[in-house]
Amino acid sequence: MRAPRYRKNFARKWCVGLVLLAAVVWSVWKWGPRVSVLFSSNPQAIVENSVLKAKNFSTPVVEFISPKAKLKAYLLEDGANPIISLNFSFKNAGYASDDEDEQGIAQMTAALLTEGAGDLDGQALKEALESLAIKVSFTAGKDDFSGSMLTTKANAKEAVKYLNLMLSSPRFYEVDINRVKAQMKEALKRQDEYPARALELEFIKELYGEHPYGRNPLGKVQDIDKISAADLRRFVKDNFSQNNLIIGIAGDLNAEEAAEFIDGVFANLPSNGQINFVKEAEIDFDGRVRQIARDSGQNMVLKALPGVSRNHEDFYPLFVANYIWGGAGLTSKLSQQLREKEGLTYGVYSYLSIDDKSPLLVVAFSSTADKFKKADTLLHEQTRIFRQQGVSKVELENAKNYLIASYNLRFASIENIAEILTAMQKYNLGLDFLQKRNDYIANISLRQVNEAAQKYFDDSKMVSVEIGKF
Prior knowledge:
By secondary structure, this protein is of the alpha+beta class.
């Protein structure tokens, strides 16, 4: 009964995905990987009145090894619907690992893998996937190259066949390469039309300089122009290998079936590749401010402080502290002061960025030019107060209650679950993470949160980039 809806949505996404390639690429760079929260006003009510109430994660995550390729994967078996979701990442194969003179090749590969495989051209491949209600997507993030697949169990064997072809025998037709090149170059040309995008590009340049994290996520025109089909095939051979592969799978299958599934997809990939490892980024958090003059309706700013990695001992205290400070939407301390009390901005937000080579604490807001300086001054004042005074017991309990209640909202789809299983392996969170995560939040003490506030929220270290009228 559900297949027609999948086919309809899948066809629409294929069409929109091609037209909006640049927008998708940009959003991947801008928003991930980061740790934020859902801004539902009442997650308890949503969970209580939905099927998510039953998500107590009593079903354990299972680690298994495939018999043929000896690949490790995490599985969460869920037979509620006859659906299978696969999520996978090739570590250190994201756009930051592009060769210096091939910037843009990872993004181009992600766009082209669905444009023909084996003996099928792009149209034939898309028609085959659509007819079977199989959804496939690829993403070149900053650190990793990721893919996902959603299929009905009845069509699992066909899904395995097609995904294997895309990964091991992509076509890279010249006409498709030229079309994607044109899309990427047009997106590069138009980036400066949008103040927010111009700000984001200048922000990463200011933070990272010549480090690969400072690159334009879309690449460089001169590099894009010269990338050939042979270069794309070499990229696939070098980066899509078994030794840098992380796999999460969820849905209506057991461990034996899942092992056969992933062997079918990945067993013929090379055992090892030729990966470009990216060094740690070195940032001087010296409180500098860079201004970019621009005639725009709003002044905007991005600010960065040092953060922590996902498995750092301070992660959870900082996660909760950030939620209270700027991550809670309209109820955060910053929003209450800058927006609700003073009316200086429509919105201010913060989040933890957990990029592999440079974890950050980022805060941003926009304001009219006449209010911008006052808003910026108030943000720094409130950060100093937050650092000195910390949070109250009531604020901590409210934050914990929200973060615990809202966690089930992440499991509204089987696709999200497969993605979380991949992240659990990437960040070494353990097989029992789903059962323990809320305990990690619940067990954080007031002392730990206030120590994190004192340790990480030093406004004198903020690196700021501003754009607008000054």
